[in-house]
Amino acid sequence: MRLIVSLVLVLVLAGCGGVRHAAAPRVTTTVAKKQPPAAPRLRVGIVGPVSAAVPGISVERGTLAQTAAAQLVLVAAQSVPLQQLAAFARGHRQTHFAYVGGRTAGDRSPNLVGLALRDDQAAQLAGVVAGLVATANGAQARVAWVGPEERKLAAAFAHGLSSAAPHALLLRQWSRKLPSRCKEAALTAISRGAVIVMAHEDGCADAAIAAAHQQNIPGLRLDQFELPDVAAEFVVRDAIGGVFRGNEDLTFGAASGAIGVRRLDPRIPAATAVRARAAAQQLASGIAPTG
Question: In the chain, what are the domains?
Answer without folding.
Answer: 42-117+227-254 (3.40.50.2300), 119-220+262-284 (3.40.50.2300)
